Amino acid sequence: MRVTIIAADNAVIVNGKGGKADCSDILKQGISVVQWYDSVGEIEYVGHAQPNEEIYNLGPYQGVIDSVKFPEPSPPPPKPQPPLVVTTPSPTPIEKLLFDMENRILALEGKPSMPLVEFLARLNQMHTDYQTLLDAAIEAAKKKAAGNA
User: Fold this and answer.
1) I need a surface site. Which of 25, 39, 75, 123 has the fewest CB within 10 A?
2) What would the mean pLDDT of 6-19 be, rounded to a whole number?
3) What would the pLDDT profile of 32-56 be if each residue is shown by its tens digit?
4) What is the pLDDT of residue 112?
5) Least confidently predicted of 8-12, 52-56, 58-62, 117-121
6) What residues contact residue 101 under an 8 Å CB cut-off, 6+ apart?
7) Which of 132, 52, 119 is nearest to 93 (CA)?
8) Alpha-carbon distance 68 to 21, whole Å?
9) DSSP tag of 1
């Protein structure tokens, strides 16, 4: 067992794990540090008033060692949460048509030099295209509904 007692700090380290204990009785004896290395140890005196003393018995300090209060271990960190995945539903065929129509109209608006007749012809063609697609979507929906009935 490896022990270090630092009396002035009321600190005790046992096998690398630090804690607190009342070391006032040790300090009153003029001892600043007690070191223990498995079967032999050493006492260091406050202000090095006398040379370090080798010890062969940890018994006089066992009460302090037994009274050490080690801090509670920190809780483990929280597990990382999986990333939030936001799925956007696919647009319906009607939404696709409206979006495309809106983009085409916006593209036409950016051309102020276009003659009105050409604009109306393009708008009419778009209407025809969308009507065809809309009719196909309605027909597909009817077939699907009839199949589920």
Assistant:
1) 75
2) 92
3) 999 999 999 999 999 988 999 999 9
4) 55
5) 117-121
6) 126, 130
7) 132
8) 5
9) -
**Distance, CA of 95 to CA of 101 (rounded, Å):** 10
Q: How many domains does the chain have?
A: 2
Q: Which two tokens stand for residue 99?
A: 């979006």
Residues 6+ apart with CB under 8 A from 108: 114, 119, 122, 123
Distance (Å, rounded) from C-alpha 43 to C-alpha 73? Answer: 30
For tokens 């050493």, the residue is 42
Same domain, 113 and 61: no
Whether 85 is covered by a domain: the verdict is no
pLDDT at 42: 95
Domain encompassing residue 41: 2-66
Rg of the chain's alpha carbons, rounded to an integer? Answer: 43
Residues 131, 127: Cα–Cα separation, whole Å: 6
Return the closest-CA partner of residue 14 out of 73, 72, 70: 70
Q: How confident is the model at residue 22 (pLDDT cuts 50, 70, 90)?
A: very high
Q: 53 and 108: one domain? A: no
Q: Locate tokens 């009785």: which residue?
A: 25
